[in-house]
Amino acid sequence: MTSSTQVQVKKSTKKLENLGRLLVKCPDKAGIVAVVSTFLHNHNCNIIESSQYSSNPEQGMFFIRIEYHCDNLQEKSAQLEKDFEVIAKFHEMDYNFSYRNERLRTAIYVSKEAHCLMELLWEWQNGDLDTDIVVVVSNHEDARPFVEALGIPFHYIPANKEIRKQVEAEQIRLMEEYKVDLLILARYMQILTPEFVTHFESRIINIHHSFLPAFIGAGPYERAYERGVKLIGATSHYVTNNLDEGPIIEQDVERVDHRDDVSDLKKIGRQIERRVLAKAVKWHIENRIIVEGNKTIVFH
Amino acid sequence: MTSSTQVQVKKSTKKLENLGRLLVKCPDKAGIVAVVSTFLHNHNCNIIESSQYSSNPEQGMFFIRIEYHCDNLQEKSAQLEKDFEVIAKFHEMDYNFSYRNERLRTAIYVSKEAHCLMELLWEWQNGDLDTDIVVVVSNHEDARPFVEALGIPFHYIPANKEIRKQVEAEQIRLMEEYKVDLLILARYMQILTPEFVTHFESRIINIHHSFLPAFIGAGPYERAYERGVKLIGATSHYVTNNLDEGPIIEQDVERVDHRDDVSDLKKIGRQIERRVLAKAVKWHIENRIIVEGNKTIVFH
Amino acid sequence: MTSSTQVQVKKSTKKLENLGRLLVKCPDKAGIVAVVSTFLHNHNCNIIESSQYSSNPEQGMFFIRIEYHCDNLQEKSAQLEKDFEVIAKFHEMDYNFSYRNERLRTAIYVSKEAHCLMELLWEWQNGDLDTDIVVVVSNHEDARPFVEALGIPFHYIPANKEIRKQVEAEQIRLMEEYKVDLLILARYMQILTPEFVTHFESRIINIHHSFLPAFIGAGPYERAYERGVKLIGATSHYVTNNLDEGPIIEQDVERVDHRDDVSDLKKIGRQIERRVLAKAVKWHIENRIIVEGNKTIVFH
Amino acid sequence: MTSSTQVQVKKSTKKLENLGRLLVKCPDKAGIVAVVSTFLHNHNCNIIESSQYSSNPEQGMFFIRIEYHCDNLQEKSAQLEKDFEVIAKFHEMDYNFSYRNERLRTAIYVSKEAHCLMELLWEWQNGDLDTDIVVVVSNHEDARPFVEALGIPFHYIPANKEIRKQVEAEQIRLMEEYKVDLLILARYMQILTPEFVTHFESRIINIHHSFLPAFIGAGPYERAYERGVKLIGATSHYVTNNLDEGPIIEQDVERVDHRDDVSDLKKIGRQIERRVLAKAVKWHIENRIIVEGNKTIVFH
């Protein structure tokens, strides 16, 4: 079993800056895997992990995620991407190159309830969340102390229906100022306008406190209580302009019973929300997710 | 640890005919537990297990389930029930006495898909389902062989919208002929009329192949697939005249992913449906369930 | 369904100082429930919730947990306890009265890994942990900042085999100074001496990072990795003088696969440890646990 | 969403005889994926699904599972395998070609408890188990009726320590007569000799009624009860000559509590055993498993 420990060592000694990821989506046809893997091999990229999925053998779509190792990747990446363009064009590929040492810049939006924000900050502190949390935005002051204690800028932007437009203008300005790649709504209880959502398409992750499509909208725990369900859940999804109907990334549930009142459901639910959102965010920042139609393909 | 084995022995040697159950529901007030437990004690009934629940300390409802042991219970039960009437009346109790050696008479309704029926028959064969399955009714012939192989009468009653009335008349006649206490819809794919449902109020248990209230109605697996959920579920509930909206008894889920097509979801779902329905039926026949409004209180 | 919201209101308005709990363990005999419930009724205590368990109908042990409401309980509790002595003596009862407004004084022990400590502090901050965390003890300085930030005294006591005796002497002195009722070992990686454990019998809760009895002792994640298990777990238990063999309070697991190396198992495990320990601690401080032999009876 | 239904149609219309699988294990080096995928492409095999795993980026082992489609595969397969030999030799590959329309021939061994056997037979009847169950062997007569009712040969071979040698000789003869590829021990309660196990290396799947490595050997439920665990489990693994220590394929657990005695644990456990064994068998017959050392790599 020394081999196992060996693996550990190897992994940890592997240089992050030499690790790259490639996500590809294109019409399915024969030989795509050969084309992509040969391309990488010819560029001295060694495939460490790859997962592939075809939505339909004959005429559907083809999806692949590849993690590779390449010495001096930083110097080579520009050429690598340039050379890939030809292949991509020929095979009508949507694709995305990302690099382990180039971390996404993430903003977290929160309202009064801080448990999801806290979970993300903890994971981040533990080094379990491979991203840069560059700013926290809230319509309440509650979270300021522990956010600033971690050296993360905290912006208080009061919000309500009336002032939505200027609030979002201010938020967009902030996101640009902080060069934000990903927005996480960690129980941010404000409706976003279609303009705002479109502006950050496929880059906003929300946690909804129900097992969607059950209990779309407000008061899910109250409604779960009234329906007498025996399990409650939480759902993390990309935000689109259909409320709570965006592509689902992750869901989970916990058992409840007749003795649990609404406040008990909320307590239990907080635990589910925390872990479901944390998983969804991890998969996004590790480029494990491809959105196809209104669904997600998650390469674990 | 001999004690543990001892417990086994004791349990098995305990005579079933001396075991009784009492379910009580009444307006909550001080001293109810004292009243009921003292009554039982004075009638030489020793409480083996009891669970209690108050929906609201000050002015809500009170619910209790008691299992007791009483020597020669069979001779005493009539008097016991008679004496209890006074208390019940005074405290405005809904209540129900049942006896371990008086098993419910159960009918199972099934259509083409036999997995839920099979699960119940297996559990029953193993002695894990403490009821008498007295008849199986189906609108298809498929299940006849293995039902009759177990010596259970099988009645084929073709059904469709047009002939619903006479079909149900025939079914009600059958239920009376077999003195049926409980109807289980084990994937019986016919809509029941309000008359039929009312005739067997709180005595029909259905399995719905979704995590209610998600995907009410037809084609839940197809709709789950199209929505891209990450968990699918099944729900067992009492049948009321609101489709799929009766009191939920039990629910469970399994994880699925983007590679699972509708037929995969159905395979996975069959496993969930089987165990969810079997649990709900067990709890009903063990008198563990009290229906309150549109919810169930299940005393595990 | 207004009733449901009503319940909420009621609950919240109910005065904590009028809520009491009674735990009883005694030889099982006829009429115990009647005796206890009548006693409480005669003392104007209204039973809100009760759970009971008999390890063996004929000649085993009887266990009951009762939550009750009583006006001006604080003035009456002394008399209540005094009057109960007679009954308790007659029926050879072990029993324990506790009061919702008298919170346990809890100490948390931690080493380098802070995730379990953090979980408890969060739950406590959210008001989900009904205890007073009076002191944190560690053999490392790491946790000091965020512990003191919450206004909780932090004591750094370096520890190792050689100086174990004086370390424990110092710790016992501290526990007495802080009048500690409960010690939580939140990944405290030091062996305790029999003297220390005996001094706090049934008052020390540990989290072990495996699904006991699998992987007792050191390096459970390494050994789980080497064995190639498909689920990893965590176990919370009372500490006895048999390493990792005390009465189990709670356990849970998560799925892993061949791609997860030891560091992945540790990440996943941290999530399990956090929630398993938090649950066990909650049940202890809510007086839901009775230790019987080397097992726990947990009244949920 | 019509596309989704389309997918269904396509899948079902795809001819099984044109679907092949390739499992490869070899020392990890750059370009393996390119080599294999190019080979398949050049032989007009279109990769439908592929999963890959490297135990160690620099110098570990490489594992890949590929499902492909190829017109007239039956005529081409011989040449395909022949041509692959060169590559395999050069890259020191262990590999295995299998074809969807060539189903494994499976034997099921059972003793008194039939629940695991029944589960496999049901799945098989439902068309959910893609294998040929060619014979059932038992040291009891109990299962004969329903096995023969399905037209499967049933062989009663009494067994015990004394006659083990001739019993196994008889069993091996039977396995050869029926050309058995896979042996499933569905709660077959006899110890097998090293000779027997070696004879069917990596081709015997067992279900052990505990969460291994906890409770290795006899009486796991009794011991789980005595230890007071809060979850019980089952483990399916390949049989080696170390009792209950072979490579684990799948494990699962269910929650239990203090009210569950040994007979309850056995009831609950039966449900776990059934689904854990069924999953393990499915993965084996779909060639999803590679054994590496004492672990399994399962490509879901």
From TrEMBL, chains A, B, C, D:
Supply the Pfam families for this chain: ACT (PF01842), Formyl_trans_N (PF00551)
- GO terms assigned for molecular function: formyltetrahydrofolate deformylase activity
Q: What class of enzyme is it?
A: hydrolase
Active-site residues, Swiss-Prot/TrEMBL: 244
Superkingdom of the organism of origin: Bacteria
What is the E.C. number? Answer: 3.5.1.10
Which keywords annotate this record?
Answer: Hydrolase, One-carbon metabolism, Purine biosynthesis
Q: Which GO terms describe its biological process?
A: 'de novo' IMP biosynthetic process; one-carbon metabolic process
Per the record, what are the reactions this protein catalyses? (6R)-10-formyltetrahydrofolate + H2O = (6S)-5,6,7,8-tetrahydrofolate + formate + H(+)
The signal peptide stretch is none
- Residue stretches making up the ACT domain: 21-100
Q: Which InterPro entries match?
A: ACT-like_dom_sf, ACT_dom, Formyl-FH4-Hydrolase_C, Formyl_transf_N, Formyl_transf_N_sf, PurU, PurU_ACT
Kindly tell me the pathway this chain contributes to: Purine metabolism; IMP biosynthesis via de novo pathway; formate from 10-formyl-5,6,7,8-tetrahydrofolate: step 1/1
Gene3D superfamilies per record: 3.30.70.260, Formyl transferase, N-terminal domain
* Free-text function comment from the UniProt entry: Catalyzes the hydrolysis of 10-formyltetrahydrofolate (formyl-FH4) to formate and tetrahydrofolate (FH4).
* HAMAP family assigned to the protein according to its UniProt record, in alphabetical order: PurU
Q: Which family does it belong to?
A: Belongs to the PurU family.
Name-wise, this protein is: Formyltetrahydrofolate deformylase
Source organism of this protein record = Psychrobacillus insolitus
Q: Which gene encodes it?
A: purU
